Amino acid sequence: MAKEKVNKQKDSKEKLELAQKIASNSQKVAKTYANVENTVVYIFRRILGGLNKLIFDSKFSKFAALIIAIIIYLAVNADTTSTLNVTQASQINDIPVQVMYNSEIYEISGIPEKANVIVTGDMSDITLQKSQTTSRLTADLSGLTEGTYTVKLTPTNFISRLSVNVIDTPSVTVTIKKKTTTRFNISYEFINTNAMDSIYSLSEPTFDQTEVLIRASQDTIDSISFVKALIDVTGVTEDFTKASRVVAYDQNGNRVSCDIIPSTVTTTVSVSSPSKEVPIIIRPVGTLPDNLSIEDITMDYSTVTVYAPNNVLEMINAFYIDLDVSQINKNTAVSTALTVPSGANKISVTKINMDITVGETLTRVIEQVPLEWFNNNSQYKFGTVNTADSYMDVMVSGTSKNIENITAADVKVEFDASGLTVGVQEVPLIISGSNKYVSYALVDGRTSVEIQVVENE
Question: Is the distance from CB of 119 to CB of 162 less than 8 angstroms?
């Protein structure tokens, strides 16, 4: 028992010593970790501090930017170089064709104005070539005289590293003809008249010279039908003098390419705005239904100003509107568009509004209306075969307001004497009156009369 007790005490002492040793070692390890941690933190802070100083230092920033730029350049250049080294082809269209020849002596035909090419080479050169504006295809006719030749189109002013091939027309057949000179009279044409206010009229132009010389091959000269001075009248409002381009045309109105000497002539044109104010007259067409007649038509415009050359204005004394009344059976409002008369440039009113008033149709007889005539250019004497026909009774029809005050002086029974010959003949009668809303007819229904035509002594 005593021995076991001693052993137990010994084991307890050994355990205590072991525990103390472990605790001591643990403290040493923790201290070591703490020292390492502090060292790492210290070093990291030092590094960060150094980097901050370098980054925010102006000299270092410039140096770093230079290094980065060099890296980017090398990367891009390496990529571009790998791309540009690949040969590619591309079509470029509408390259102008330049012809070298003596244009003073010869006329040429058969050369196109433009042609298409295929260029082969590095993509960078092709891209640059597409931006060029001085590249040409040259047809060199120097030293050639009259005749027909086959010539090549030679690329000119293309980037030298590119291979250039003309497609479709690498060679063309050209005809060279010697020019001759012929004199032509000048006519004229006003252009851009739609850009001039239509109230204006233009006079016949005068020229500083009425002829020009045309130089071209005989075949071209033979194709010319007329030569015109093109007079631009954009926005003109008053008399003007200007240089006008001269152009030659064939019989189909197509322009002919040739040398015109001089290429322009001085033209003088008078600009005016002749006009005339005339009444608007409504002419009813047809018959109103239900025993009705027009009593009155009121309009928002009673006159219209017509703009036209003087010779046209002389023939315009009124502006007539034919109004179909066959469907009107009550008081009605109507709008109608006005059409510019033939030969006129413009009218001041393009639409009028009308209020049409209707009423019951009544009739009256107007007695003893004398027979008259017009257009007696041959100065004949006229008499009726039946003496009673010298005066006729006329029936007037219309509303009470329109017929109640009509007298014989307001009515006409007449015939056209133009074209009549001496002797007895029947002539058609024209029966009319001063009131356009009233209808007129002979009471006996006749539309003609027999007359005796004799020469005037």
Answer: yes
